[in-house]
Design goal:
562 residues; 24 helices; two-stranded antiparallel ribbon; disordered N terminus
């Protein structure tokens, strides 16, 4: 299929082991690289405008540690000492203080963590500015999520109870001061309900103990789907990258039989779960994740949770964890499709843990490919590539040729999104050769990668590499091979084909295909599809003509109603 376009490659056992070593080094490199840059002074945190001799303004970068170097230790100590001798106002209450020669006692009405934070700061001789800088320094060294602003006023409001501490800030404060993050409370949750941070973090950790992992998964299923924390994507570097690394290096779970519980679980129970998962996937494929998601979560809560807490043998337990992993990943896809990216990340992370309990290495790779897909959709190319590479490195020798082709094609898409043609073409060549060896009879039931799927990945990769002729050819082929019931997939492939034509300057052809996609969008409840079409509109709208104007106007009317 790729013949004249791709470059062949081969990898032996030594190459696979070397690649796994490089991948694990890469997953850990972010922290080490940033730390080195910090200590050598090459990390630029922000810029300050300083006056120069001639009265002009110079923009000078400085390292995140440079602020402290501009202040002498004596000055910092005197600031902290001065604070110790000042009355500390906390709303309408006053903390117990030791003032000059006398002890003032009062009852504080603010949360205990306010006092704990202030005590930790003063114990280190830091002013409020110093603590703000230390939090920023820790953030830049460790890269924990999105960049958050921290100033002296934030510190003051935290210590006086005027501002709550969200999860993201709590992680940074813990890193800078050592105060456990679960000591803080998020006061900004919906309906005025006070939510402890460990509740907000449900589903984000890899739990080594299997019973604990099961309980975390059930807790996740019980959470409301409209929670604020679930509507946005969590920072991959602080969450899902760690889970992926744990999947790569964690030893297998021992025997998983369970002797407690009120009912025995048998193979018929597992077959019922698998049948329901197939039915819900069909709804998802045909109507979008927004339709299937509530039904799927309700089934997990009411039917699968009691099975996990039941009694089963080791063999049945492995099969149960395998079915649970597949179902949970399916719900993760639905949440991703519905635009609930934080929820999707949690479900995919816990699906990965369940696949590990099932000793299903191949399906673990499938989950990482899904995580890569989501990361690329969100524009997080770096982690999208990491997840795709981890999927291939962690499944060497454990997958069928069809699955190997699917994982290689996903890695190719990640390289293309990064703009790296050589590794992209190598991965596509690997995918093509593996697919040529595929035999559907050997594939697990969850494998749904066919020739149309391969053509779709090829089209997407060539589009992102700005090779629109190849992209158009494979996009046409992928649409021809699209299954009639996969409406969402067909719309997404229409969007790729239209983009390829727009890249070639064929705006009329792009708009014609775009209208085919627009005609199907109202039948779907898929935020992901809306996003794909919106990107097409942005690409076409960059060219001014009557044709593009009419298309963009029609598209905005359709998309605004979704």
């Amino acid at each position: 299929m790729l013949g004249m376009h791709l470059v062949g490659s081969s990898a032996g056992t030594k190459g696979a082991l070397a690649w796994r070593h490089r991948l694990m080094t890469k997953l850990l490199d972010g922290q080490r690289r940033i730390t080195r840059s910090f200590h050598t002074g090459y990390l630029v945190r922000r810029s300050k405008r300083l006056a120069v001799a001639d009265g002009s303004r110079a923009l000078l970068p400085f390292c995140s540690c440079s602020r402290n170097t501009n202040r002498s230790p004596e000055a910092s100590d005197s600031l902290a000492a001065d604070e110790r001798n000042r009355l500390h106002q906390v709303g309408q209450a006053v903390q117990c203080r030791q003032t000059a020669g006398e002890r003032t006692l009062a009852v504080s009405l603010i949360p205990s963590w306010c006092q704990e934070l202030r005590a930790a700061r003063l114990a280190r001789g830091w002013s409020e500015d110093d603590l703000a800088d230390q939090i920023q320094n820790w953030e830049y060294r460790h890269g924990r999520g999105r960049a958050l602003g921290v100033s002296r006023s934030y510190v003051s409001e935290w210590e006086t109870g005027k501002r709550g501490v969200s999860r993201d800030y709590a992680i940074r404060i813990e890193g800078a001061t050592g105060i456990p993050r679960d000591h803080f409370i998020d006061h900004r949750s919906s309906r005025g309900r006070v939510v402890r941070l460990q509740e907000a973090e449900v589903g984000l950790q890899w739990v080594d103990d299997l019973d604990g992992a099961v309980e975390m998964l059930i807790d996740l299923w019980r959470c409301r789907l409209d929670r604020r924390e679930f509507l946005v994507a969590m920072a991959a570097t602080a969450v899902t990258s760690e889970v992926a690394l744990r999947w790569l290096v964690s030893p297998p779970d021992g025997r998983v039989e369970r002797n407690a519980g009120s009912r025995w679980v048998g193979h018929s129970d597992i077959q019922a779960v698998q049948a329901m998962q197939r039915s819900l996937k069909a709804i998802d494929d045909g109507h979008g994740g927004g339709v299937a998601l509530p039904m799927a979560v309700e089934y997990l809560r009411g039917e699968v949770a009691p099975l996990l807490r039941g009694r089963y043998t080791d063999t049945v337990g492995r099969a149960l964890f395998s079915a649970t992993s597949e179902f949970t990943l399916g719900v993760g896809w639905m949440a991703y499709d519905a635009g609930k990216h934080g929820l999707a990340q949690r479900y995919m992370a816990q699906a990965l843990r369940m696949s590990h309990a099932a000793k299903d290495r191949a399906f673990g790779g499938r989950i990482l490919a899904a995580m890569s897909h989501q990361a690329l959709h969100l524009g997080d190319v770096r982690h999208g590539l990491d997840f795709a590479c981890a999927a291939r490195a962690g499944t060497q020798g454990a997958v069928t040729p069809t699955t190997a082709a699917m994982l290689a094609a996903m890695e190719a898409c990640a390289h293309a999104a990064r703009g790296d043609p050589s590794p992209c073409l190598r991965a596509l060549s690997d995918a093509e050769r593996a697919f040529d060896r595929s035999n559907p009879a050997d594939d697990p039931a969850w494998v749904d990668f066919d020739e149309g799927g391969l053509a779709g990945h090829l089209a997407r990769s060539f589009r992102d590499l700005n090779r629109p002729c190849e992209a158009e050819r494979f996009a046409v082929r992928s649409i021809q091979l699209c299954r009639p019931t996969h409406l969402r997939t067909r719309v997404q492939r229409y969007a790729i084909l239209a983009s390829a034509r727009a890249q070639q300057g064929d705006l009329e052809g792009a708009c014609a295909v775009g209208r085919l996609a627009l005609a199907e969008v109202p039948r779907l409840r898929s935020r992901r599809t809306v996003d794909d079409v919106a990107r097409l509109v942005q690409l076409v709208g960059a060219n001014s003509s009557q044709t593009t104007h009419d298309f963009t106007r029609q598209a905005r009317e359709v998309l605004s109603s979704r």
